[in-house]
Amino acid sequence: MRIGIVGLPNVGKSSLFNFLTRAGAAADSYPFTTIDANRGMTPLVDPFLKRLGEVLSPPKLTPAQIEVIDIAGLVKDAHKGEGLGNRFLGHIRDVDLIFHLIRGFEAQDIPHVFKTVDPARDKEVILTELALADLETVERRLAKQRKRIEALEEVELLDRYHDFLSSGSFSLNGSYSPEDISLLKSLGLLIPRSRIEVLNLSEEASGVELADAYRLSVSLEQGIEEFDSAEQEELRREAGVDAKGVDGLLERALEKLGLIRFYTVKGEEVRAWTIQAGSTALDAAARIHSDIARGFIKAEVVNAEDLLRAGSWKDAGTCGKLKVEGKDYVLNNADVLLVKFR
User: Fold this and answer.
1) pLDDT, tens digit (0-9, with 9 covering 90-100), for 208-226
2) Sign of the alpha-carbon dihedral angle for 179, 252, 188, 160
3) Which residues contact 145 (CB under 8 A, 6 or more apart)?
4) Which of 5, 119, 247, 317 has the most CB atoms around it within 10 Å of its CB?
């Protein structure tokens, strides 16, 4: 899974990227500090992995990880190349989900590109640029595909999407099937990509609002790293941001993408993975390694909650919670798998 952090300059994108990945990317108070996209990995905080380690006692615990991409600040007319916009827009086509970071904080030492803090306006500016870039892509594609009889269904979809963009709307609102959205994304279009608006606030949120946005303070997150989780949640509540902080934002990303966790037991390692909801045991095997999928025989499966209640792998089998499943078994969230393969 790839997440791209997108927004105007000086909204805290590189600071959020650094907090997530510990990559040490340059973060400064002038526009376009980031020119080339920075890439890094961040582990997902896991509700079960540590506790599974206590039960199964492996020498190694490996959390699931996601790739995070810090994309340089977009500006008005980015779709025309302003601020190297075409180059930056291209990076967004590589991601599965967008964190659209929007500035909600005042800071005299960090200039705002529009001089004033106005989250609704800033959100509109970025989404308009994404939509205009999509319009150009669609018009080029239609000019080519209208000449091909076999592209009739694609042309009909692109005509409908063109009308949607021209109406000034930015939300697909269930008007397109998953197959339609998959095709639109495969053509490099931006608005159909999953997106979470993130309002980056000061350590005292001061009543700044943006409907449906995840409320986060990157500066607060940086300041409370050494506190325990209960203290962190209390400080976030006092600041008027989401109590779960960055971890809650990553969980929302998993939900938005329709991903679940599963765990594997192999040798000296218990490892967490993410996979699309509705995936089978064979899909999980392929996620681990293609050779395991090719040689798949069966999977011993127990849900993490049942395994923790049982207290051991053996006891989970004794109480009937451990089952042997074939390749067509559909995974539940937090299933633990021991895959047998040739």
Assistant:
1) 999 999 999 999 999 999 9
2) positive
3) 151, 154, 155, 158
4) 5
